[in-house]
Design brief:
The protein contains 9 helices and 6 strands, in the order H-E-E-H-E-E-H-H-E-H-E-H-H-H-H. It is mainly alpha-helical and 178 residues long. The strands form 2 sheets. It has a 3-stranded parallel β-sheet with strand order 1-3-6, sandwiched between helices. It has a 3-stranded mixed β-sheet with strand order 2-4-5. Helix 2 packs across helix 3. The radius of gyration is 18 Å and the shape is globular. 25% of the residues are buried.
Length: 178
C-alpha cells in the first residue's frame, strides 16, 4: 500500500482526490498522497482516528499529515483521534476546496481540466509538482538546484515557446502538452 501511495506522489501528473463521503483512516491516508483534495459539502467527517484502535496511521499518515498541517497540529489530531468537518480540514490546509453536493463530480472534473492542455502546459505542471515534492525533502539549496534543472528542461519544450510567444503577442496560449 505504501508503494502505491508513493507512486501517486511521484507521477508527473497531478493527482486530485474527490472526497465525497467520510474520509477517515486509510481513506484519508490515500487522499493525502494525492496532490490536491476537493471535498463534497456536508458529505462526512475526516480524520485519522487509529489511536482509538490502539494503533497509528501506518500507511504514511503520520508523515503526510505532519507535512500538511505542521508537527504540533498533526500530533494533536492523531493522538486525540478526533474526526472533524471538511470545513475544519479546509482551514487546516488538508482540503483545498469544498464543492456543493449538486454536480459535485462534474465540478471536480472541470477543476481538473484547468491543469491540462490546452489550458496549461502539462510538462510545466508536472515539473512544478516534482520541484515542490522533491524540494521539500532536501535542504533549500538543493531544492533550488532541482528547480533550476527542471526550468532548463522546460525552456526546451514547445509549450514554453508557445507560452512565451503568446505573452509577447498578448494572446491566450494554446498548450499541446509537448
Amino acid at each position: 500500500a505504501n508503494e502505491t501511495l508513493n507512486r501517486l506522489e511521484h507521477t508527473p501528473k497531478l493527482v486530485i482526490a474527490a472526497l465525497n463521503g467520510h474520509t477517515v483512516g486509510g481513506g484519508l491516508e490515500i487522499a493525502m498522497a494525492a496532490d490536491l483534495r476537493i471535498a463534497k459539502k456536508g458529505a462526512g467527517k475526516i480524520g485519522l482516528p487509529e489511536v482509538t484502535l490502539g494503533v497509528l496511521p501506518g500507511t504514511g499518515g503520520t508523515q503526510r499529515l505532519g507535512r500538511l498541517v505542521g508537527k504540533a497540529k498533526a500530533i494533536e489530531l492523531m493522538c486525540t483521534g478526533m474526526t472533524f468537518s471538511f470545513e475544519e480540514a479546509l482551514d487546516m490546509g488538508i482540503v483545498n476546496h469544498i464543492y456543493e453536493r449538486v454536480d459535485f463530480m462534474d465540478n471536480v472534473y472541470a477543476y481538473a481540466r484547468q491543469f491540462a492542455p490546452p489550458n496549461k502546459a502539462s510538462k510545466a505542471v508536472g515539473r512544478i509538482k516534482r520541484a515542490v515534492c522533491s524540494g521539500c525533502e532536501v535542504p533549500f539549496s538543493e531544492g533550488l538546484a532541482i528547480e533550476r534543472e527542471l526550468q532548463q528542461q522546460l525552456f526546451q519544450s514547445s509549450d514554453a515557446k508557445e507560452g512565451l510567444a503568446a505573452y509577447v503577442e498578448k494572446r491566450v496560449p494554446k498548450f499541446a502538452g509537448v
